[in-house]
Design brief:
20 helices; 3-stranded antiparallel sheet; 4-stranded antiparallel sheet; 410 residues; 7 strands; alpha+beta
Length: 410
């Protein structure tokens, strides 16, 4: 009877313990900070989705280790008053805003892109065509024009390639890129290549890498193309076209929004901002008159001043005249309007998006803590990170609920 009672007691104890574990949502505790199982599930699922990975226990363990490392580094922010570093907080807000903008374009603009049937059929035919192409490359348009002039004077394509390519393969094969098909190359390069006849040489083509002069040597077209195959490929083609044309889609959307907003920036305001531009970007200028311009009601001078201050160094250096400044001011106001629109969408308030948004800010804080605050001259970011981590691990207790990690349901 005693043995039966003991077995029943142990069974009851183990069952209660397992039930308690299931109720407990604390996956790990790092000092006083907690990693909640639901929060972990959200960021871990996002990691798998972003990297095209399938869940397994090894990935779970490694990802949890990284999450613990993040908390250990972030725990150091309590030892300093981060709010005294106003520039850091501006950077964090800018990074978060960019994430919000990216998500808005992805969910509200790019997802609505629907190419016509004729465009899809043209893309389908391209996907069934392989082009054999060679090219001459230059970083500048001026040099590319000179290369085209040499070709027009009869200088051999192969001879020019030997002079300009550092890559020994391209130098020795006349710049031959081999065969490619739809979606393999830079879209602008590809569009021009498909428009050429065999043997025809293009004018210089601007791509994201520089300038190319293209010649199609040969092409192979799949002999049998069926309607059923086209219909089966349509979704994939839409996906490819959306990715290829996303910059144009975004530009078209912002131009349409600009027209709807009817932004009017007065000459007085433009003059005032241009005259005081250097003082503004150095955060030294205080606007004295808020009535210098006429805009839609939701905008004021603060948006413009803050927008100019928060421009990247590259953007700031591009402003050489009042027309440049006017274009940038329009961009600032359109950006602000898109942020306003984004913050009205359901997905903005979604728990998953808010957690991802907070991680963006935390990443910047980690970068600041390692690089700027805990200085170690001559050490790389990784070396400093590991030194700080090692010190934190020796001081901060870490507890992990392995049961919850194994039982995780995504």
């Amino acid at each position: 009877m005693y043995r039966i009672s003991l077995i029943l007691f142990l069974f009851f104890f183990i069952s209660c313990n397992q039930m308690e574990n299931k109720k407990n949502t604390t996956l790990a505790k790092v000092g006083s900070e907690i990693i909640n199982i639901n929060d972990f599930s959200i960021v871990y699922s996002h990691f798998l989705e972003k990297n095209g990975l399938n869940d397994n226990f090894l990935f779970r363990n490694k990802f949890l280790d990284k999450e613990i490392d993040r908390l250990l580094i972030l725990s150091l922010k309590d030892s300093i008053e981060l709010r005294q570093f106003s520039a850091l907080y501006k950077k964090i807000q800018n990074i978060k805003n960019q994430k919000i903008l990216d998500e808005y374009f992805r969910k509200e603009v790019l997802s609505a892109y629907s190419p016509s049937d004729s465009i899809l059929r043209q893309a389908f035919i391209r996907s069934k065509t392989d082009l054999n192409v060679r090219h001459l490359y230059s970083k500048s348009r001026e040099e590319a024009n000179q290369l085209k002039t040499q070709l027009e004077k009869g200088i051999n394509f192969d001879k020019i390639a030997q002079k300009i390519f550092r890559d020994s393969v391209l130098a020795n094969n006349g710049g031959n890129l081999g065969y490619f098909t739809f979606g393999d190359m830079d879209p602008k390069f590809e569009d021009v290549a498909f428009s050429l006849s065999d043997g025809e040489i293009s004018d210089p083509v601007k791509t994201k890498y520089g300038y190319s002069i293209i010649q199609v040597l040969d092409r192979w077209i799949q002999p049998l193309i069926t309607e059923n195959e086209f219909q089966a490929r349509k979704d994939k083609l839409v996906y490819i076209l959306r990715n290829r044309n996303q910059n144009e889609i975004k530009k078209s959307y912002t131009e349409s929004l600009k027209k709807d907003l009817n932004i009017i920036i007065s000459d007085n305001l433009l003059d005032q901002l241009f005259i005081n531009y250097q003082a503004i970007i150095n955060d030294e200028y205080k606007i004295k008159n808020n009535q210098l311009f006429s805009l839609v009601d939701s905008f004021d001078s603060y948006d413009l001043i803050e927008g100019l201050i928060n421009l990247s160094p590259l953007q700031k250096n591009k402003i050489k005249n009042k027309n440049d400044l006017l274009a940038v001011l329009n961009g600032i106001l359109i950006r602000q309007e898109i942020l306003n629109l984004a913050k009205k969408q359901d997905w903005f308030f979604n728990d998953k998006f808010q957690k991802i948004l907070n991680r963006v800010g935390d990443n910047k804080i980690i970068d600041f803590l390692v690089n700027d605050f805990f200085k170690n001259e001559g050490a790389t970011f990784k070396e400093k990170y590991n030194l700080i981590l090692q010190d934190a691990k020796s001081k901060i207790p870490i507890n992990i609920n392995e049961y919850l990690l194994r039982d995780l349901k995504l």
